[in-house]
Structures are given as C-alpha cells and as structure tokens.
Amino acid sequence: METAFIDGSMGEGGGQILRTSLALSCITGKHLHIENIRAARRKPGLAKQHLSCVRAACQICDGHAEGATLGSMVLDFRPGHIRGGDFSFDIGSAGSASLVVQTVLPALFSADKPSTVTVKGGTHNPWAPPFDFLRETFLPAIATAGFQADCRLIKHGFFPAGGGKISFTIQPRQATPNEPIDLCKPLEKPDVRTRIYTARLPAHIAHRQEKLLCQSGLRIKNFEHVDVTDSDGPGNCIMLRICGNHRTIVSTAFGAKGKPSEKVVREVVNLTQAFLSSSAAADRFLADQLLIYMATSKTGSYTTNDLSTHLTTNIETIKKFLPVNFNIEQQNQIHRISCEPE
C-alpha cells in the first residue's frame, strides 16, 4: 500500500497537519508516516489531545498506530476499512473536543452507516473552534454539499478545567449531493449579535463586556448572556455572531485570569470588523476547515478575507493524499479559493 510521507514542520507546523493527515489516510487507505509532529509549537510532539485524535482514527477504521505516545515526534498509521457505529472518546484534559471531531468527521461521511461520536474534553477553549462555531457556522456550510451531521452540547467545558462533552450524529454522504460548496457571495445586510458566556464568575464581568461592546462602534442587534452552571471550572468568552443569507459566522475571543475585558472585547471586535469590511463569505477559521470537504468532492469554491498559514499548509497536506488542485485568486481585499481535479 502506498505511503504518504508528511513533514509536520512544514508551514504553520501545528496539529492541523496531523489531523488532516489522519482523516485522509482513513479516506484514501494510504499509510501515513509523519515526522516532526507539531515542530513549531512550544511543546512539540503529541499531547493528550493529539493522542486522542490518533486513537479516534484507529477506532473508526480498525487502524494501527506506532509511535502514539506523549511527546512523540514521529507516527506511523496504517488505516483499515472505515466503519460506522457509536464511538466515545475521552481526551482526559481540557484539550479541544472539536478538534477530535475534526479528525474523524470527514472519514465517517464515507462510512457504510450512520455514526454517533461523543467526545469529552474542552468545548470552549482558545486555539480551537468552540462548539457554537461548529453548530452555527461549520455544519451548515458543508451541508449543501451532502455532508449532513447534527450536534449537541451535553456539558460545557472551559479551559483549563475541561470536563465538557459534545455529541455528533453523522450520516453517510449522499451519492449525488445537491450542489458543491459554493460560498462566494458576501452576507447581505448582516446583523451582529452578541453571546457572552460566563461560568463560575461574577455577573459584573458580563455586564462590563456588554458595555464595552456597546462602545465598540459595531451596530449590535442584540445581547445574550449565558450563565453556565454545569462547568467544572471558571470560563468566559465573547462571541460576535454575524448573521445573514441564512448563514452565521461566529467570531470568538476568550477571557482568562489577568486578561482585561478591554483586551477580550478588542480581539473579537477586530476579527468581526475585518470580516465585515472585506465582503468575504468565509472567515479565516471556516476557510481552513472547508478545504478537506472540497477536496473529497473534487469541487467547490469560497471567498475569504485572510489567506492564513493554516489554510496554505492544509492545502499542501491535502495534496499529499488526493489528486486535486487548489486555485487561489486575489480579488481586492479577498481571496477566492477553488478546487478541481488534477
């Protein structure tokens, strides 16, 4: 069987290279040999979260992995046949549950029957898409191309305590989807809506953040405060939800001990203003995650306001497994990304 050789230090040099490689190894049946895993990170190698991704990939396809130990910089993965079923994974830390789902979801769309995936870990933590992004932005974006999945939040888990739980129900992809991913039209007359999460924190924090958002210059339509009662530890994040064309873009910034609310608000406002001023259809976080679904479909296109290193690195990783080309065209402030067979 053909082997894909991946250098985990290329481009942004993070965990996305591993997750994309595992998913595509399952889908294509190619063996995977990856070196220099997460070489660009402060603590390189496999952390608990990434080990959970490897173990999850093994379970959904009866695969075998060598080098799956904490801190390992090298991994060999041999996939078997993808099978649908009920799967449960526990990261054992506040590592992102969303990123474990990101590893297995593309493969389970190719399974022989529906699947459920339940993951215990962090549901709302920095450096990873929060649950709200998956539910409101990501899943609707891939649904029109025949990738149908539902999700629910069972328990909140904020960094650093973790302990959250999410569940996904995945349907095998339709043989003849309605249309490819096509996200090139900007949101028309978008509304900006705020959702502030606080867990085990004083109420005045959310009130102050709401006041700062009112002073931000954004025209915010409504405010929602979610006082989380089921979290194992404290947590805070602000989400600005840009709604239009029956779509939602979720931008998020996280609070932390010693981090002023002014900085949290400034981070999320800057993300939102950059997207709104660009006329793009996909933000930088959605843009990165659409690529693998376009590649397995061998078609699709979208516009984004940020050509991130995550995106370009993901393109190079995908091309190690699939015979596709990605075309990148700059159109004023936005980039149009399209996919086609080689």
Describe this structure in words.
The protein is of the alpha/beta class and 342 residues long. It folds into four domains: 1-82, Translation Initiation Factor IF3; 92-179; 191-276, RNA 3'-terminal phosphate cyclase, insert domain (Dihydrodipicolinate Reductase, domain 2, 2-Layer Sandwich); 285-342, Ribosomal Protein S8, Chain: A, domain 1. Helices cover 31% and strands 30% of the residues. It contains eight helices and 16 strands. The strands form four sheets. Strands 1-2-4-3 form a four-stranded mixed sheet, with helices on one face. A four-stranded mixed sheet has the order 5-6-8-7, with helices on one face. Strand 7 and strand 8 (164-170) form a beta hairpin. Helix 2 (48-61) packs parallel to helix 3 (97-108) and helix 7 runs parallel beside helix 8 (309-319). The longest helix is centred in the C-terminal third of the chain and has 16 residues, at 261-276. The chain starts with a strand and ends with a strand. The mean pLDDT is 96.
Which helices and strands appear, and what pairs or packs with what?
Layout: E1 3-7, H1 15-28, E2 31-35, H2 48-61, E3 64-66, E4 75-78, E5 86-90, H3 97-108, E6 115-121, H4 131-143, E7 149-155, E8 164-170, E9 182-183, E10 191-199, H5 203-214, E11 220-228, E12 235-244, E13 247-254, H6 261-276, H7 284-297, E14 301-304, H8 309-319, E15 324-331, E16 334-341
Parallel strand pairs: 1-2, 5-6, 9-14, 10-11
Antiparallel strand pairs: 2-4, 3-4, 6-8, 7-8, 10-12, 12-13, 14-16, 15-16
Helix pairs in contact: 1-2, 1-3, 1-8, 2-3, 4-7, 5-6, 7-8
